[in-house]
Amino acid sequence: MEDPESEGAAPPPGLSSLLPPREFLRSRKGQLLLAESVLSFIIFICYIASLAASFMMAPLLEFLLALFLFFAYASKLNEKFKGVHWPLADFLRCVTAAIIYFAISIAAVSKYSDGASKAAGVFGFAATIVFAVDFYITFNDLVTFLKQGSSDSPEGRKTEDEDSDSDSD
User: Fold this and answer.
1) What is the membrane topology listed in the Swiss-Prot or TrEMBL record (predicted)?
2) Model pTM?
3) pLDDT tens-digit profile of 138-160?
4) Angle at CA of residue 62, ends 37 and 95, nearest 5°
5) Alpha carbon 75 to chain centroid distance?
6) Out of 28, 93, 121, 137, which could bridge 109 as a Cys pair, Cβ 3.0 to 4.6 Å?
7) Inter-axis angle of helices 86-111 and 28-48, to 10 degrees?
């Protein structure tokens, strides 16, 4: 009797169908989004357990946004929904998250004396660095994309038309 796994048959559907593909998990974007999600969740839990519970909303929102983008990129929603400018939305999310995490981490470390607030502040500084790396990489991708788009702009076509007109004279 042959083993169905040896024939290259697909595994039965289940929880594994909800997991993102390995290629995405190995990509730089996948690893950054996963790190952002994990750090945001840890910071959220730390703020819940601390005296600085008023700061818990920012990590919760960042966790949900990072998780949404993680699964959106993993399931290639960015290719299906062309109306949304995904790199720009991701860039703005990363910039605002880095600024917010930096600000609330300083406040949590300096104003509150309990251990959970200090831990949330330290993880917040780590999240600031991860979000800053992500927005730097996303910014470079965005600039490259915009430079490619500027060659198709009307200004680029005008100079080509003027050159061809002067050559025909």
Assistant:
1) Multi-pass membrane protein
2) 0.74
3) 999 888 877 886 655 444 444 44
4) 105
5) 14
6) 121
7) 30
